[in-house]
Amino acid sequence: MQEEDLAFEIIFDEDAIKCLNKLNKELKSRIFNKIILSKTNPFRYFKRLEERSDFRLRVGNYRVIADIEKRNIFVTKIGLRKEIYK
């Protein structure tokens, strides 16, 4: 089996795409690349949020919130650390 066969599928929520598209090109690329990097082993990059069922990925001052189920990573929110958990 190849590494690509073991990779998780990444699915972006519409709101997450809107948030990502509002960012400057360099930051958008950095966040997107980190999400793609997590495909083969998301639990290395994503940490479970306390008292919640979803996970967070840290990229500087930004956070990516996602649900991880079976072989899918559902990216639901992307935003600044101080605003994302509200």
What can you tell me about this protein's structure?
With 86 residues, the chain is α+β, with helices and mostly antiparallel strands. The chain has 5 helices and 5 strands, in the order αβαααββββα. It has one domain: RelE-like (YaeB-like fold), CATH 3.30.2310.20. Strand 2 and strand 3 form a beta hairpin. The chain is globular, with a radius of gyration of 13 Å. The termini are far apart. The mean pLDDT is 92.
Strand content: 25-35%
Helix content: 25-40%
Going across the biggest sheet, name each strand in turn. Answer: 1-5-4-3-2
* Mean pLDDT over the full residue set: 92
What's the structural domain tally?
A: 1
Task: Spell out the helices and strands N to C.
Answer: HEHHHEEEEH
Structural class: alpha+beta
Distance between the termini: 41 Å
Question: In the CATH hierarchy, what is the class?
Answer: Alpha Beta
Strand tally, please? 5
What is the CATH architecture term?
Answer: 2-Layer Sandwich
Gyration radius, rounded: 13 Å
> Outline, from the CA principal axes?
globular
By CATH's scheme, which homologous superfamily applies?
Answer: RelE-like
Number of helices: 5
What is the CATH topology assignment? YaeB-like fold
**Multimeric state of these chains?**
single chain
Low-confidence sequence ranges: none
The biggest sheet amounts to: 5 strands, mixed
Features:
single chain, 86 residues, alpha+beta, YaeB-like fold, 38% helix, globular
Brief overview:
The chain is α+β, with helices and mostly antiparallel strands and 86 residues long.
Write the layout of secondary structure elements.
Elements: H1 3-6, E1 9-12, H2 14-21, H3 25-37, H4 42-45, E2 47-48, E3 55-59, E4 62-69, E5 72-80, H5 81-84
